[in-house]
């Protein structure tokens, strides 16, 4: 059946210009315009024309969706107004007819402003000595909603909805103009996607979901009439309230109107009115805390997506604008996690176990050559509910402050504002890589005593963890055994600032005041302790930095998504400083050190893992010699512990994946994990690389050239 009333079907009802003018005049009488100097004033006309141009292309806010890597499984949504744009062809005729019957039964007869409706409102308002009845057509209501949805400031929102005569007349003018530009079906489609139905349901898709758990295409006459009746007053006619009396009365009114317009037969309307309103409410997921329990541990990756998004200039000039785009832009975002690698990471850090320990064991896995994050897991439950968490382990914290376990949403793995954890000797990679890139060979040797007093660093005298490290070391043996005194001497040769700068190029950021000061140009040259990992870092940063070494020195910014598409299905893009348009979700890579230097660093980094380098000797033993046997393929990496083993780390990589794991107390960095737990991150990385790469072909590292071996 056509949506047009039977009385209007098959013919058009001409609306004379004189009638339109009379209608506007009546509106001017009904809404006193003593302060209005004339609708035809030049400034007003220009303002109306400008607004009308905006409305021609304006689209309402739309929910953004976060998908699992398969691109079809919805993990959660982001919205302020739950809404999904739906074409008129995907809506049941019942809802189209019901909304016309409820809100504007002369919709197909007028051209934006209904003179008869204006006259009726004028009479009613005159009798009541006020504004007891409006004269807004569906087109005028759409104009008002579109102005509200496209508003950029609170003032524009207020102007769109304020009850003033000037606003009403401008609204009429724009409605007349819009009807010249859009068809009735286009206006009805936009209206049904903009209207508010209550319970945060904006648009008919959201309303059908929230009230009946179905799509707009399957709405029955009873359901359609119920929803159409809500637009007038969502709270008064709410069918989800305990008393459905008002909702039923309003629904029956709409059904009667549908009958009068020929949309329903009297018998069908009678049957419909005899039925109770059977709702089937749904509460749509919103934000990361609403991710299904099956994917609970993915909440940390979801949270990282939000933090990453808030830093992307492609989505706005500041964090507020970017997050507004996320919640209103209708994006389709596909997460970059690899389910197989993620499952391995979760298993190997005990992410799904309830942990009653202040020590967080987390892991991040990045893909060399793309920067895509393939796994993020920590032995915590992603939840806002911390009511069962105990008190913080930090003795200086407020006694009422809750601990970070078992539940938390804190970005313990990186990507947020937390500084991270001291990463110990994993930082030895940066001065070594800087030295190699500067032309120093792998065979560079120093006599490395148990303790070394540095003349460059003002008499600073670090020592080794063991007397067994004493002797002449090269980069292979110095890195494999983690010889502090070797790396202080190496750092002296190249300058500590070069190691600091390289770490920054590989994505590390300094978040504490101490780290910022030490990394500053004025201080970096004297930051000798940098090579020992006294700075805070996150596993996200460390995994991605080491991934660049696995990719022959090509650093790629950390990327938590596989794709981002706009509401129209096109890829989300941004324009570079050079004017080139690029997809936001495409890898952003650059060569940080020359490929031979990176390959040489990898050759030395095979020593700590028990692997065999292509060119040199590891010196007989290493700090994590079990890793090669566990992974079962070529692997490089580095252990790291801090003073008193307050935290312990391992960063390991193959040609395919790079993983960084830590164990520490996020609440209290002085709460030492102890030597007994230093193997925990080693095992987490080794087992995750093993399990995540199971069944894939084994790839070899490219050996360094003879020139850099020395």
TrEMBL record:
Keyword DNA-binding attributed: no
The reaction(s) this protein catalyses: [GlcNAc-(1->4)-Mur2Ac(oyl-L-Ala-gamma-D-Glu-L-Lys-D-Ala-D-Ala)](n)-di-trans,octa-cis-undecaprenyl diphosphate + beta-D-GlcNAc-(1->4)-Mur2Ac(oyl-L-Ala-gamma-D-Glu-L-Lys-D-Ala-D-Ala)-di-trans,octa-cis-undecaprenyl diphosphate = [GlcNAc-(1->4)-Mur2Ac(oyl-L-Ala-gamma-D-Glu-L-Lys-D-Ala-D-Ala)](n+1)-di-trans,octa-cis-undecaprenyl diphosphate + di-trans,octa-cis-undecaprenyl diphosphate + H(+); Preferential cleavage: (Ac)2-L-Lys-D-Ala-|-D-Ala. Also transpeptidation of peptidyl-alanyl moieties that are N-acyl substituents of D-alanine
InterPro entries: Beta-lactam/transpept-like, Glyco_trans_51, Glycosyltr_51/Transpeptidase, Lysozyme-like_dom_sf, PBP_transglycosylase, PCN-bd_Tpept
Hydrolase listed as a keyword: yes
Domain Glycosyl transferase family: 75-258
Keyword annotations from UniProtKB, A to Z: Carboxypeptidase, Glycosyltransferase, Hydrolase, Multifunctional enzyme, Protease, Transferase
Pfam families given in the database record: Transgly (PF00912), Transpeptidase (PF00905)
Domain spans labelled Penicillin-binding protein transpeptidase: 363-666
Protein name per the record: Transglycosylase domain-containing protein
